[in-house]
Amino acid sequence: MALFGSNVIGGNTDKLLTEAIRGAEEAGCTVERLDVVSLNLSGCRQIYHCVDKVHCVIQDEAEQYHTMLKEADGIIIATPVMTYGIPGQLKSFMDRCQPFYMAKYHRNNSFISDEHAKIRKTLFICISGMNTPEVFIGPILTVKAFCQIIDTKYFDELLQNDMDNVKKIETKPDVMKAAYEKGRALGEAITKARG
Ligand SMILES: Cc1cc2nc3c(=O)[nH]c(=O)nc-3n(C[C@H](O)[C@H](O)[C@H](O)COP(=O)(O)O)c2cc1C
Predict the structure, then answer these.
(1) Could you tell me if 130 and 83 are in contact, meaning their C-beta atoms sit under 8 angstroms apart?
(2) 127: Cβ below 6 Å to ligand 1?
């Protein structure tokens, strides 16, 4: 499953994600891409319905994609940095995975079996406009927490800063290649883990 966090179809994040998906597919995986900004979803309302219920009380498109998230062997998350974090819609999608959190940590009965958790792996692709050392700290912390909540290993990352100067990611063939190779490595690791 690929989660795309940008609004810009055909933009730089999109190009890197497309390469990573190509790599994963060439390693034998089937990838379903979800453009998270296109989803009709609301944020978590903190009413704690999921403390003892499997499903979120809000029956919108975020909830519908939980099944896909549960079944996925691998996840690629590709997003730009926004305000030192990840874009709001993608963050809301992650927050809405609180039913995973409650099942795992509150009821000690994760949606993901131990066997499946050993297979599940996530590749994180993130780009930023600025070139500051701390620009990816927020996004990485969020994505690592998300990986723990939904029981998937934080397998690898591709971080590209300075996009305000780089402008077009295709002027960085090494980064495009890295996206393909990291997607492929993810796919190969999953295929191997499946046995
Ligand atoms: C609302 C908004 C907030 C942003 N905040 C940051 C930021 O805090 N730090 C940063 O380095 N870049 C920031 N950016 C720049 C984007 O990360 C950058 O332009 C990125 O290349 C966009 O990729 P995309 O066109 O593929 O979506 C922001 C962009 C937008 C639209």
Answers:
(1) no
(2) yes
Q: Phi then psi for 164, rounded to 5 degrees?
A: -60, -30
| pLDDT tens-digit series, residues 18-64 | 999 999 999 999 999 999 999 999 999 999 999 999 999 999 998 88
Dist CA 67 CA 99 (whole Å): 12
Hey, which of 82, 134, 167 would you mutate to test ligand 1's pocket, going by the most ligand atoms within 8 Å of its Cβ?
A: 82
Domain hosting residue 159, numbered range: 2-194
15: domain CATH number? 3.40.50.360
Number of domains composing the chain: 1
pLDDT tens per residue, range 109-132: 999 999 999 999 999 999 999 999
Q: How far is the CA of 129 from the centre of ligand 1 (A)?
A: 5
- Pocket flag, ligand 1, residue 123 (CB < 6 Å): no
